[in-house]
Each structure stands twice: as C-alpha cells, then as structure tokens.
C-alpha cells in the first residue's frame, strides 16, 4: 500500500475518546488546545486484522475466566524468531498487565530494601519510580552525549556498581528517550560487568520492533548477546503494546530463561498481580503477531520520514537544534539549549509553540532544556510542530 493510502486508511483523530494524550491536556498542561506530541502511543488504528479478531471475540458475548492458548505462545515465539533471530521456549514466558507493573514487581522480587539498583540516564521515568517506591537505593550513570549521539560511560558504570553494591541493573534497548539501540559490543561490555559483579539484569525491550534502520542498527536482545552467554542473569520484559498500539489492552511478557529465577518469580508474583493477560489483550496480541508485520513496516516508514523531515527542517531554519540519533523507538529527543535557556523551555514549548511534550527533567534532573517528541503520528502533526518551533525561534531572535 502506498504511504498516502495507508495514512488515509489508518490515521485518525483521538479527541473525545478518553485518550490520555489528547483528552488530559487540560489536566496535565492547563490548556486543552495544545498539539499533543507526548504520550508514547500512536495516532494510527491497529492492523485491520486485529480489529476484525476483536470484533469476532466481542460478538461471542461472554468474558468469563480464560486461559492463554498455545497459539498465543507460538505467535509470540514465531515473531521473535522471524523478526530478531531470538529463540524462545514456552516455559520461559510469563505474563503481566504492563511492563511498568512488571518492573515494580521484579525490583521487589529480585532485591532487598536498601539494595543498589542501577539505571542509565536519561531514561523512561517509571524506572526511577520502580526503584524508589520499592525503597531501594537509586544509582544512576549518565549517558555521554556528543551532539545527539549517546554512548555508555562504562568506567562510570563500573564505578557506580562497586561504590554502591549494586544488585540489579535495569536497562532499556532501544533506549527511551535518546533512541539508541545498543550494539552487541556495548551490550557485551555492560553484561560482562554485571556478570563480574554478580548483578542481575532486567532488560526493557518494549521498543524492540521499532527499528528505524534495521540494516545498520538492528535490535539484538540481551538474551542473545555473545551467543546467550549472559541469559541466565537476564529477565526481558516486552509487549505488543508499543509495536501495535495496544497499550489499553494490558498485555505484556516476561521472558525468564533461568529456571531458578523463574521459580523465584513464580513463588512471589501472586503477591503483586494476576499472571494471565486479559482475553482481549490475548486476541489482539496474537493476531498482531500473526498478521501485523506489513502494517508495522508502514508505520516504521512513516516514523522514518517524520524524523527526516524534522532533521532537514531544523538544519535549514534552526541549525543549532540537536536531534538525537534515532535508531529505535518512535520518539525523538530534541536539545533546545542553544536557543532557549533550560529554565525557559516549558514556557517556550507550551506557551509560545503551543505543544504538549515530555520535558527532559522527567527523564533526568540534568536534562532540563531537552524535550521528547512522538513521531508515530500523522505527518501533518509533525510538520505543524516543526513549523511552530522554527517560527517561535525566529521571533525570539528578532
């Protein structure tokens, strides 16, 4: 399908649908008329096969207790093998109602109060909360930023592990919000440090399918790094929600290859949540994995084009703006500091540009002056956001 036809068929407006992104603007930002570029979901309908499968299930009319069928497991296993070369076993897979809920549970299960838990910042803000709310010691290592290209400071990572007796490392790849897909060399160095210092690893791979350039920057699961050398200390969390725009259906996975960690998890997870996915989440996820690849490729092409539009527009009209290299996720990380004082970023973006975004300090206290923009939206929204930023910067400089 041509991109224009795909956009016409799948792009939609979401106001007055109880959308967090669009209908909570007044509550969150004090202005219901902002252009919403924040929450990490899409302005595109799910694959039509998913809608059809849900309609058929709803027509059954009964929503009693259900089991997760073998067909769901197989659809997920086949997807991981075909898309990422990741071989999974049925017994490794557990379910949750969302990756964030699983993070909270895993931090509690894998560590004790006061234990050090390491994260790489800037990072998705629930990482901070999952550590602090469980009364663990939050340990951070700031990523290095070379004009939008982020890398890991391995020396600092090792120092933080040693100095704070870190017991758990939570990583994100592709990394939200900076858009890096960590290379196998980077992952090997990180996981080798965790092995050396007996640190367990949670790998948040919810954005795994959102590869912007699969040829040059393919995603590689932490479970397959160095031919699976580190898999016994890694628990992966992921979901179909980011890939297929299914967040409201509350369906996520945990992949736990180590039988002792599985036993530990199984013995304690009942204290936190149900361990089965919702019936509609199961139907949607299974169908998406079986039939959604072509739809996803169209979405990735749109995100890629939206990112390139921002790059070319800013290069032409505001060349000191810095967009982070976008290798994975549909989220772009914009550095405004060359034009706007960090403390004035909110006023500039909200009051002048009339945009709703996620601000940098949500991802790290050191990242005021940055904003995160969602590119999984109609290109006209991206063009409008870019023009507002460029126009407002031009007016500031007069």
Automatic annotation (TrEMBL):
Family: Belongs to the class-II pyridoxal-phosphate-dependent aminotransferase family. MalY/PatB cystathionine beta-lyase subfamily.
Keywords for the protein's UniProt record, in alphabetical order: Aminotransferase, Lyase, Pyridoxal phosphate, Transferase
EC number(s) on file: 4.4.1.13
Gene source species: Lactiplantibacillus plantarum 2025
Protein name: cysteine-S-conjugate beta-lyase
All copies of domain Aminotransferase class I/classII large, residue ranges: 44-389
One Pfam family this sequence matches: Aminotran_1_2
Cofactor: pyridoxal 5'-phosphate
GO molecular function, one term: transaminase activity
Signal peptide segment: none
EC top class named in words: lyase
